[in-house]
Amino acid sequence: MQLIIMDSRLARSKAIHLSGPRLLAAIMAASLVLMCVAALLYHLVFLKGAREGWPVVGSLVRLVVQDEFDQRDRFVRQNLDAMARKVGEMQARMVELESLGERVSGLAGMPPPADKARTPGLGGALIAARPLTMQELDATLDALQQVAGQRLDLMTVLESRLFDQHIRKHMVPTETPVPGGVATSTFGFRIDPITGRSALHAGLDFPADTGADIVAAAGGVVVTQEYHPEFGNVVEVDHGNQLVTRYAHASKVLVKQGDLVRRGQKIAKVGSTGRSTGPHLHFEVLVQGVPQDPQKFLAAGSQSGRQVAQRPGAPSRPSADR
């Protein structure tokens, strides 16, 4: 394509040759300039009409704004309805949590507070429903937050009570101090094997091979680890509440004074040190320094183990005693 530009004053002309690509680029540039000018003019006219209240332009602005408001209101309403459904589910879960807390309180031996406000029963036929407002939703969420805080406080107290019971249970000597061992000399008066006279036997004797394991009957702190003329190598474990267990005649002691031991932990080896006629463990339980029949404590542990084993799916031996 060829364009000829004529200049009358200078009496001359200029020819411009446009090839296909140049012509296409020129057309696109001109179209872009026209579009920008048109958009600028439309924007200026639209703003001027909206500010001065031109009838047609004002109507268009109101329609556009109203449509945006309607879309926003529908979006907010949908979100509020979804949140209301979630709040209803949370309320139902909170009622279940409250019921569970009452049952756990009973198991923990702690009655529910006397001033506890019970959730009143509600119900009736659904006559009509209306959308939930933001203020009502905020109030419901605040109430749920308050109830959740109360349930958290209750669960914290229950956890403390159950933990205390768990600790107390593990501080009672119910574990047989010689695994698999059977006592042959019981608590009470007997004929002393050395003097042949009647004497009080303040514990249980568990015959076993020298070097067999001696385990702690319960968790506690080692308060005595020494050699005694009659008990030989002896270990005493304090379990709290003035309850102490004694393990005598050991050939070797594996703990020292001040050590923390857990239930079932190896603390010594069976031997025949001190006043003894052969390898065995002399086991005592003392409450406030007074010897008690250890068989009563061991029998309580055996009974508890049988009850756990009878439960469906329970292991043959309670894992907590290990």
In short:
This protein has 322 residues and is α+β, with helices and mostly antiparallel strands.
Q: How would you explain this protein's 3D organization?
A:
The protein is of the alpha+beta class and 322 residues long. Among the domains are: 60-113 and 131-170; 188-297, Glucose Permease (Domain IIA) (Distorted Sandwich). Helix content is 43%, strand content 22%. The chain is built from four helices and 13 strands. Strands 5, 6, 7, 8, 9, 10, 11, 12 and 13 form a nine-stranded antiparallel beta sheet that branches. The longest helix has 53 residues, at 55-107. The radius of gyration is 45 Å and the shape is elongated. The termini are far apart.
Low-confidence stretches: 307-322
CATH class annotation of the domain at 188-297: Mainly Beta
**Relative helix content:** 40-55%
CATH homologous superfamily heading of the domain at 188-297 = Glucose Permease (Domain IIA)
Order of helices and strands: EEHHHEEEEEEEEEEEH
Radius of gyration: 45 Å
Per CATH, the architecture of the domain at 188-297 is Distorted Sandwich
Structural class: alpha+beta
Shape: elongated
End-to-end distance, in Å? 100 Å
Number of strand elements: 13
Largest sheet: 9 strands, antiparallel
Q: Could you tell me the strand content as a percent range?
A: 15-25%
Nearest-integer average pLDDT: 76
Keywords:
alpha+beta; 322 residues; disordered C terminus; nine-stranded antiparallel β-sheet
Give the arrangement of secondary structure elements.
Layout: E1 2-7, E2 12-17, H1 20-52, H2 55-107, H3 134-170, E3 188-191, E4 198-201, E5 204-207, E6 213-215, E7 220-228, E8 232-238, E9 243-253, E10 260-261, E11 266-270, E12 280-287, E13 290-292, H4 294-309
Helix pairs in contact: 1-2, 2-3
